[in-house]
Prior knowledge:
Elements: H1 3-36, H2 47-52, E1 57-61, E2 67-70, H3 72-76, E3 80-81, E4 84-85, H4 88-100, E5 104-111, E6 120-130, E7 134-141, H5 143-179, H6 184-215, E8 224-227, H7 228-238, H8 240-245, E9 249-252, E10 259-262, H9 264-280, E11 287-295, E12 298-304, H10 312-317, H11 327-333, H12 339-349, E13 353-358, E14 364-373, E15 388-389
Parallel strand pairs: 9-11
Antiparallel strand pairs: 1-2, 1-7, 3-4, 5-6, 6-7, 8-10, 9-15, 10-14, 11-12, 12-14, 13-14
Helix pairs in contact: 5-6, 6-12, 7-9, 9-12
Amino acid sequence: MDPVLIAVFxxxxxxxxxxxxxxxxxxxxxxxxxxxxxxxxxxPDGSAEVLSVVGRAFIxxxxxxxxxxxxxxxxxxxxxxxxxxxHRELLDxxxxxxxxxxxxxxxxxxxxxxxxxxxxxVVQVRVAPLGEEYILILADDRTxxxxxxxxxxxxxxxxxxxxxxxxxxxxxxxxxxxxxxxxEAAVRRFAKRMNTESARLAALVQDIxxxxxxxxxxxxLDAAAVEIDDVIAEAVDRTRMPAQDKNITLAVGQLVPAxxxxxRQQLVTALRNLIDNAVRYSPANTQVGIGLQVGDGVVSVxxxxxxxxxxxxxxxxxxxxxxxxxxxxxxxxxxxxLGLSIVKHIxxxxxxxxxxxxxxxxxxxxxxxxxxxxxxxxxxxxAPAGQKHS
Length: 390
């Protein structure tokens, strides 16, 4: 055979083998790459779009309870960490839905974190199948609603309990009066007790009405510039008579021009409650001090007494509704247990805070701290300095 033809033939065969080898290598590489690509979990059509606008925290888990997708809310609530659902209660619900195909809905109390004492998260949970492969968990935070409901129930229970005492006492006293109409001394004694109990009942009802009114009112709607020395003067004037009955001096310190933004009558009520509280629990022939300080954009009004003071436990609870440090003494002095709750609510509505310093045997000092308002242009009057009331 011609050597040239042999060479050409060998070249063609070699070229063909090279092309085939290249094609085989390319196919092998493509196959190898496909073998190592992790398929992104695909949700049923349209579900991703719906979940993005559902307005609840959501978790999508697969057949082995791995998290396929979760909202930021699910992570912030502590329901999910990484690709793991953190609460067995949720996985148990998902297991039942996977087994039965029936939507489950529960109200769950879940710990907020792994550390004890971080609080409880109250969530309304709805668990449903999502396609053939996934389970969807929807969680709606109801913690604040549950807390509000608990506070409301406690308030109603406390009010019912507090009203029973004076109403029952008046009923018994009325029966005693009816049974001894000819005993002039007994009639006078029972009538005096009835007058005391009715006054206590009236004060309790008034405080309940006041607290309910405060909870339903937006201070900012009727807010105006309020001169704080006027608030102090009116609050002192309203508490002068009970102070005189115990020969207690109401000593007002140096006053300076200062304004706050808020409701004048509410602020008077808050300060009057503090002064009245100080008078009630101070020994006779002592002094209650009312001081004013202005600085760093804060107006501080303090009320100091020379009473028995409060323990640490009492200081932590004294602003609770109907909480009384000494129940027997509170009933004797006519306290309703709502005065400091009203103070705290008013100050909170005005963007401020009420603080307490107290030491057993050395008295207490309550301080109202409110944001200072720049002096209104229309205000030109300066408060008198160093007033004394008794």
